Amino acid sequence: MTRWGILGLGRIAHKFATDLLTLPDAELYAVASTSAERAADFAAQYNVPHHYGRYQDLLTCEGLDVVYIATPHVGHHAHTLLCLNGGLPVLCEKPFAMNARQVQEMVQTARTKQIFLMEALWSRFMPSVVKALDLIEAGTIGKVLGIRADFGFQAPFLPDKRGFNKDLGGGSLLDIGIYPLFLSYLLLGKPQTIKASVTMSPTGVDEQCGMVLTYAGNQMAVLNSSFVTKTRTHAFIYGETGNIYIHGRWHESQGVTLEPHEGDEQVFLYERTTWGYDYEAQHVMQCLREGRTESPLWTLDDSINLIELLDAVRQEVGLWYNEDDLDNTLTH
Fold it and tell me: Which residues form the Gfo/Idh/MocA-like oxidoreductase N-terminal domain (predicted)?
């Protein structure tokens, strides 16, 4: 039995907790919030034996095996270091932190202390994404030549809430643009060139972001994210001898279609009753059982590479946050 803690009790924490309850070898053992009342209410809803009204008090809970960090982006760096320095393994929500400098410090701390750390990019462990990767590695569409992926929804303009609040790391790129960028990195690695453009909200964060990436093998990825319009949120992978379509919403998809240039289509379905966070939770528990300090499927180097891509896109469009003031690669 793996005993989980959750730090930060917003909407995504509820989804993660719900999925955790479906796993017979997992127990939600402790939760922490900045509000004692919120922590108590959350604990009562999910029958959690320990709850705390301060994040640092989670470290006093004996018997915890791993902590899931579900705070806003701007807190990921500090909260991950809090847990790592307290000797607790960490699964931290994406984006891992606000910039590469912060991520590198998190990774260095975990590796120095030899404590498990992983970015919670749940899409990497979705059966649909795993299947698409397997099909590509099996050569079913030949060399991948192009990727087109999007993620967009209409978010209400609430300047004080996380989505548009610059002080909380708001903006479409860091929140949902990370998903198309993750897919391009997963399949093609780091690009040779990045071109990007954004439209800005009145609060100074991007409400839409478009990216075009080119690679050494004459490959291209066309990606976009949006808070102002609902897109189909599909992913298309174009190869020499066929295509792969990851059904919408592709980052949490329950289906993949293989479309060979010659021959019949094949559809692979992966129905589920959970939100889908159980897949990454299961992987973390497997890593812990095997004594690993990082995932072999989404490594800490992968997280460094992805945040460097996000930094490069932000540098291209001139999107800065307060956390960048101390960063050598992102300067005003």
Answer: 3-118
